[in-house]
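User: Fold this, then the next.

Assistant: Folding the first:
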Amino acid sequence: MMPGANNEVLLIITKSGKIHDMNIHQQKNGTWTATVIFDVNGILKYETITKTKRDSAFRSACEFVRKNIDEFAYVHSL
């Protein structure tokens, strides 16, 4: 992420090749929110994680992906 930027979009690529999204952005109150957008059997779902630091939000979102979507998924910056 570029210095001073407060938004980032990432791709989550599963072992089977499915692609999902992760958005990380800073709220007006200074907290960071990571939202994982994914589908389960064709139904769109999301998980939102809010932390005080960007890295904590990112790590927690990655843990969610590995535990709930695919433990072998890769997260790539666009």
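Now the next one, as you asked:
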Amino acid sequence: PLSYLYLQGTSMASPHVAGVAALVINDMGGGSAGAVRTRIQQTADDLGKKGADDDYGKGRINACAAVGC
């Protein structure tokens, strides 16, 4: 069956963050975990209220912005 589900939470987000982290590490030629985290957080799309909030956290991860494409 072809269908979509709306799912949320850490178990849905972590595979996406891991993939973007790999792209960032490749783009940076290495780097510490802190540097990778900072790049991902600084390039996330801010959703909801400005800044971090209970509904969207620090925003939606943006792979393209994180690696500068």
